[in-house]
Each structure stands twice: as structure tokens, then as C-alpha cells.
Amino acid sequence: MAVYSMTGYASAVAGVAAAASEKDRVSDPGSTASGAGPGATSGLLAEARSVNGRFLDLTVKLPEELRGLEPAIRDLVQASVKRGKVEVRLALPRETESGWPQPSPEQLSRLAYLQDAVSSWLPKAAPLSTNEALHWCARGATGGAPADEGALAVVRECIAGLKQARQREGARLVASLTERTAKLRSLAQQAVPMVPAAVQRQQQRFLDRWAEALAATDAASSVPREALQERALNEAAAYAIRIDVAEELTRLAAHLDEIDRLLAAGGELGKRLDFLIQELHREANTLGSKSSALELTAISVEMKVLIEQMREQVQNLE
Fold first, then answer.
1. In the predicted model, what is the mean pLDDT of residues 179-189?
2. Residue-range domain boundaries for the chain
3. By the 8 A CB rule, do 218 and 180 touch?
4. Angle at Cα 60 formed by Cα 57 and Cα 66, nearest 5°?
5. 92 torsion bin: left (phi>0), alpha (psi -120 to 50), beta (else)
6. Cα→Cα distances 284→1, 35, 185, 253, 271, Å
7. Is pLDDT at 49 greater than 80 in this prediction?
8. What does the pLDDT read at residue 34?
9. Percentage of the chain with pLDDT > 70?
10. Domain 170-314 falls in which CATH fold?
């Protein structure tokens, strides 16, 4: 399965081909092409943009003419997007808002026929004004259903483009995360051989200080030597256990294995990766706090830098 980012942008314009064919038909009054005139969605612009968010936060901005499509548009987005702050916007073409409509002869003829039919039944009905005629021609003689379907079609195209953009960005994030997990593994492998030597060195330092403390207090004169040696070894072993970071390195490797497995499987993994990143940070912190060697401290710092970079990237995954 693909991995999707929550960041993306896409746009689509409706009715470009249809508008061209309609222009040809209007310029040729003798044409017998069928249609309702310039569709209300010709040139309609749809834009969709998304950024990271904890849940799906959808905002739909529509012109008043298409306000009734909001529930359908929400259903289309929710079927394709699971997380993120998403904004879908539809804008009527500038020509439709500020230009002059170009009614076709077929539309005008149809309006004249309908007006005659209404007048025959309602003699007192007022005739259509020029503004009303232009308004009805712009809407199209077939009503709002085809215009609504055209608007939904361009929204579908836009959402598909948004999904592809999120998928491309997700692939880049996966590559970046995989690169950083490889670097973390390399740092962990560098730390593994350092641990026994560091523990042994600190253990010997502890025993030396133990001996100095006994000599300073002259405890050997009142306590048997064998008892003092046994107590020193027990304390040194307990101290070695406290500073040993082998367990943290083992858990860190296990977390990295799980991250790589999730990235390879794909799907909705942002929240699970976020939890694993927290665990990685915990292990790196413990490695630094328990470290008794400058080399291990430096490795811990480098690990935390990489983990923080991963955390920022995981925040953008769906």
C-alpha cells in the first residue's frame, strides 16, 4: 500500500473542451449540434489543498450557485482522505462573473416558445426581460442537474490530483525516514562494542575508589578482608548494571525494525509511527543519561538529532 503525506495541492478546470465546442457552435448559427448552451460549469475552477492535522478537518468554500453540492463534496473528500486539514474551493470563471453571456439561437428559440406557451395560458403574465433571458440562457435549458454533475466531476478530478500529490510527497517522506533509520542503526552498531569496555572501565574505577575509601577509614582492620572484597564486587556489579546500556540499544533496534516494517507495508501509519518515534527518543535519552563515556554521549546526541528530524517528518504522514 502507498504511504500518503498530509501535505498536497491540486487544481482542475471544468468544461474546457465543452466550452470550445460551444464557441464553435455559436459562431455557426446553422449548426445542428445539440446542447443546452454554455454549461454553468464551463471554466469552473476547483482547488484542493491540505496540510497536516491530527484528524480530518474539512473546509468547503463554494459560490452561492453551488452551495447545495457541499454534502456531496464532503462525501467525495472523506472517501479519499483520512487525516489532515483539507480545504476545497470552487470558483466560477471570471468570464461568467464579469463578461457577457453568449446565448445560442437554439436557447433563444426555446425561451420564445416557452414564453408563448405561458402567455397562452396566463395572458397577464409579464414577458421575459433581457436580464431574465440572459440568466436562463446562462443556466442552460436543462436545469441545474447537469451543471451540478459537471461541478462534481471537476471536484473528483481535483481530489484525485490531490491524492496523487499526497502520495508523491509520502514517497519522499518514506525515503527520508528510511535513510534516517539506516543512520540510527549505524550509530547503534558503533555503540555496541563500546558498551562492555565502558562498563569495565567504570567498574574498575569504582573498585579503585572503594579501595581508597577503605584505606582512608582504616575499615580493613575491623572487617575481614574477604567480606570487604565480596561487598566491593557486589557493589561494582550493581553499578555496572546501572550504567549498562545494552538493553536500550536492543530496544532501539527493535523499534527501528518496526518502523521499517510499517514503512514497507504502507497505509495509514502516521499515528503508530508517532508513538514509535517517542519510544526512540526515550531510548536515546536513556542512553545519554546512563552513558559513562564521551563516545557514547556523542552517539546519543547524534541519535536525538536524527530522531527529532524523523518526528517532524512523521507529523506529515497520514
1. 91
2. 8-166, 170-314
3. no
4. 160
5. beta
6. 30, 68, 12, 11, 20
7. yes
8. 33
9. 68
10. Butyryl-CoA Dehydrogenase, subunit A; domain 3 (1.20.140)
Q: 0.70 cut: is pTM over it?
A: no
Length of the chain: 318
Give the model confidence (pLDDT) of 165-181 as tens digits: 999 999 999 999 999 99
